[in-house]
Design the sequence.
């Protein structure tokens, strides 16, 4: 008995054709139930009468498709993947095969080839349910910022950090490599974004120590009603940019997914080009990669209005994006900053600054500024203070070397004479012996007669 494999549709056709053969159903009614035309139903009925159940099976089953790629091309594509693109995803690998080797193959076809060759495994991620957040309507309303620590050069170069800023409404991305994720890196990437796009309304970072301060507020901060804040948070407050702190990576998923794109595609592109230095990586980002990412993944905002605020002047931006700390002015109108003394000019004498607090700002280029009530003060380097006069040391008596006394020194002889003698306490044995000795001494000796 022959075994015939049928799918659900073919089994339904067999059931209806059997009922037609038994006279229980009209062919036109069977065509309506199969959702085919009457002519197609007559063809199905003819194959069923001539071949039986086998005539209902799809005739192309088991045969290769007419659009099947040549075996040599498939073998070459898999060999190139193993040789040059190991670890690449099917989409990225198909793009490089088309651009670098002229092999145009769909990424899904390449994925099936790699699955059959054991070079790729399907991965399904099951994550907890999270509600989607709607994008902001205008570009510039919200910009996500974050740093990604990764082995970007795959051991070919130093460890670096990629700082990324992405607009929430359009996905437009700005990225740059830095030696570490610190305030200087955050200042620089923010400055570049402002120069290119404008001042955003709000930033969406994580709760890193660059953006949030966890210490208790000091008295001066409580009186000013500003609370403890980092240098970056202080700069955003002065620029009028809001800070919305994310409580989880999923909350700022847009920039996290951009990290995944960079860690996948950017790492592999730099591997192919042999990039191993921070300067070369930034040059490739600015010149090629960011343009490709923005051209492919940027979306259109719901509202075409530009939501960015007015861009501040270069001098104002450089002064705000600095390290600022308060200092107290001394009576001689000087103050100390990083072991340097600064002299405030006499033109500000009407301010009465001695004893008052001023703010010293160190810009990113190393220059300094002194502010009092947001007013710049002129200053210069103060002369070094005079060295304190040292009091002459009091004369000290010459040190006398003590020598031990000689063996025949009178001090030693007196010590031997007056040394105490230890007398043990009498016991029964010693008392008995001494009593016998005393009696023998008191009794006169008798002469022994001789014979």
Sequence:
């Amino acid at each position: 008995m022959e075994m015939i494999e049928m799918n659900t549709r073919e089994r339904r056709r067999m059931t209806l054709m059997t009922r037609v053969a038994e006279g229980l159903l009209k062919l036109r009614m069977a065509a309506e139930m199969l959702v085919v035309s009457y002519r197609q139903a007559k063809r199905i009925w003819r194959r069923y009468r001539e071949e039986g159940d086998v005539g209902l099976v799809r005739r192309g089953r088991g045969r290769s498709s007419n659009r099947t790629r040549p075996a040599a091309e498939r073998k070459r594509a898999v060999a190139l993947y193993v040789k040059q693109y190991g670890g690449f995803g099917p989409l990225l690998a198909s793009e490089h095969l088309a651009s670098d080797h002229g092999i145009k193959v769909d990424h899904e076809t390449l994925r099936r080839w790699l699955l059959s060759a054991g070079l790729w495994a399907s991965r399904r991620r099951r994550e907890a349910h999270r509600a989607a957040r709607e994008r902001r309507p205008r570009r510039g309303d919200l910009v996500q910022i974050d740093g990604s620590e990764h082995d970007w050069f795959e051991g070919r170069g130093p460890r670096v950090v990629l700082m990324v800023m992405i607009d929430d409404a359009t996905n437009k991305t700005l990225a740059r490599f830095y030696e570490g994720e610190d305030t200087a890196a955050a200042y620089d990437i923010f400055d570049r974004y402002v120069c290119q796009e404008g001042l955003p309304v709000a930033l969406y970072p994580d709760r890193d120590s660059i953006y949030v301060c966890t210490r208790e507020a000091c008295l001066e901060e409580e009186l000013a009603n500003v609370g403890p804040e980092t240098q970056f948070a202080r700069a955003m407050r002065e620029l009028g940019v809001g800070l919305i702190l994310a409580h989880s990576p999923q909350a700022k998923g847009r920039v996290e997914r951009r990290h995944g794109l960079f860690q996948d595609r950017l790492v592999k592109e730099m591997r192919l080009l042999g990039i191993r230095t921070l300067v070369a990586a930034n040059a490739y980002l600015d010149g090629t990669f960011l343009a490709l990412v923005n051209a492919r993944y940027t979306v259109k905002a719901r509202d075409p209005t530009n939501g960015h605020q007015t861009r501040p002047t270069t001098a104002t931006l450089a002064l705000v994006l600095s390290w600022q700390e308060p200092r107290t002015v001394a009576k001689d109108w000087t103050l100390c900053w990083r072991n340097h003394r600064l002299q405030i000019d006499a033109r500000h004498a009407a301010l009465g600054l001695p004893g008052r607090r001023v703010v010293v700002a160190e810009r990113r280029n190393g220059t300094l500024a002194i502010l009092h009530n947001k007013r710049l003060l002129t200053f210069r380097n103060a002369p070094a203070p005079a060295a304190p006069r040292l009091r002459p040391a009091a004369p000290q008596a010459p040190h006398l070397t003590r020598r031990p006394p000689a063996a025949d020194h009178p001090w030693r002889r007196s010590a031997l004479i007056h040394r105490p003698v230890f007398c043990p306490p009498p016991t029964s044995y010693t008392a008995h012996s001494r009593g016998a000795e005393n009696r023998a001494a008191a009794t006169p000796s008798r002469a022994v007669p001789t014979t």
User: Anything to note?
Assistant: The CA atoms of residues 253 and 416 lie 96 Å apart. The first strand starts at residue 143 and ends at 150. The radius of gyration is 48 Å. DSSP finds 14 helices and twelve strands in the chain.
